[in-house]
From TrEMBL:
<dbReference type="InterPro" id="IPR027417">
    <property type="entry name" value="P-loop_NTPase"/>
</dbReference>
<dbReference type="InterPro" id="IPR003439">
    <property type="entry name" value="ABC_transporter-like_ATP-bd"/>
</dbReference>
<feature type="domain" description="ABC transporter">
    <location>
        <begin position="9"/>
        <end position="234"/>
    </location>
</feature>
<comment type="similarity">
    <text>Belongs to the ABC transporter superfamily.</text>
</comment>
<dbReference type="GO" id="GO:0005524">
    <property type="term" value="F:ATP binding"/>
</dbReference>
<dbReference type="InterPro" id="IPR017871">
    <property type="entry name" value="ABC_transporter-like_CS"/>
</dbReference>
<keyword id="KW-0067">ATP-binding</keyword>
<dbReference type="Pfam" id="PF00005">
    <property type="entry name" value="ABC_tran"/>
</dbReference>
<dbReference type="InterPro" id="IPR003593">
    <property type="entry name" value="AAA+_ATPase"/>
</dbReference>
<keyword id="KW-0813">Transport</keyword>
<protein>
    <submittedName>
        <fullName>ATP-binding cassette domain-containing protein</fullName>
    </submittedName>
</protein>
<keyword id="KW-0547">Nucleotide-binding</keyword>
Length: 307
């Protein structure tokens, strides 16, 4: 038997078209073991479609998607390799959380007691005998996570798991997934809300219109020099004041009265006050990752067909 040592998840040249919508467009990325990777992009970017292709639920038009080096359909015991919680899970409202998971145990050949274990793991122990119809959205998210954990998988794939969680729930999820990844296992978690993910993930894969925008570590993508957006009717005077004693001031002129300046906003503000330069706006730049995400989200909006 050979031991697979490559990335936990790999997508290579993945493509999927629905009618005239290119949902996933030549997408290549990989997810390293032991990491929590955020799969980020605005609504409609192709995240769910990609995850469904990884899980063998949608057939790609081209390219390959593998988990632990194999296509999902070729995994001999898929439940032990990967657990997934996708959007829109069809829990029957009249049945209890426990009864749902017991059915899954029976289908997959796990002992029934495993249902109680995973329900305890996600904090649903006290509610497990209640009908799912009475669960909050956050509780249903936890139930979906519990179902994903049944086979004690190496890889967890979660589609927008923070939807419907209150801030406390998000903190809980963060701790849970961190512990999971710290044990050497791997988490791929999608979201269209960057702020939910910033505290959680090590790596990011950013999608826009089905294409890869960026992939890298959060640290790598967040680092960069500080910058600020400035509006002033006295551009030349401001630049003269800022330029004193600075060898290489990086400035981009966005409009006659608007600049992007590669300096900390607080510094620019101080210099402007000292030089009595009038400022109409001074906005600190978001860090690089947030900026990248912001840009691709707004560009997406403006590309939309007018209603
Ligand atoms: N089964 C489907 N039939 C038709 N279009 C689909 C289907 N699934 C997804 N799409 C379209 O593919 C694009 C990507 O959708 P999706 O993968 O759900 O994005 P995300 O999860 O990032 O919001 C969207 O334009 C969506 O409308
Ligand atoms: Mg989605």
């Amino acid at each position: 038997m050979s031991v697979y040592i490559g990335p936990a998840i790999e997508a290579a040249g993945l493509n999927k078209t629905f009618g005239d919508v290119k949902a996933v467009d030549d997408l290549t990325f990989s997810v390293e073991r032991g990491t929590i990777t955020g799969f980020l992009g605005p609504n409609g970017a192709g995240k769910t479609t990609t995850l469904r292709m990884l899980l063998g639920l949608v057939a790609p038009d081209g390219g390959s998607a593998t988990i632990g080096g194999r296509r999902y359909v070729d995994l001999p015991e898929p439940g032990k390799v990967v657990g997934a919680a996708l959007e829109a899970t069809g829990f029957h409202p009249a049945r209890s959380g426990l009864s749902h998971l017991r059915v899954y145990c029976t289908v997959s050949g796990y002992p029934l007691a495993r249902a109680d274990e995973v329900l305890d793991d996600v904090g649903l122990g006290p509610a497990k005998r209640r009908a799912v119809g009475g669960y909050s959205l956050g509780m249903r998210q936890r139930l979906a996570l519990a179902a994903a954990l049944l086979g004690d998988p190496e890889v967890l794939i979660l589609d927008e798991p923070a939807n419907g969680l209150d801030p406390e729930g998000i903190v809980w999820m963060r701790r849970f997934l961190r512990r999971y990844a710290d044990s050497g296992r791997t988490v791929l978690v999608s979201s269209h809300v960057l702020t939910e993910m910033q505290q959680l993930v090590d790596q990011v894969v950013i999608l826009r219109r089905g294409r890869l925008v960026r992939q890298g570590s959060l640290a790598e993508l967040s680092s960069g020099p500080p910058w600020a957006l400035v509006k002033t009717p006295e551009v030349e005077r401001l630049l003269a004041a800022l330029g004193e004693g600075v060898a290489d001031l990086r400035v981009e002129r966005l409009a006659p009265d608007a600049l992007r300046i590669e300096l900390a906003a607080a510094h620019i503000g101080r210099v402007a006050v000292d030089a009595r330069v009038e400022l109409h706006e001074l906005t600190p730049g978001r860090d690089d990752l947030e900026q990248a995400f912001f840009e691709l989200t707004t560009e997406h909006e403006s590309e939309r067909e007018p209603a």
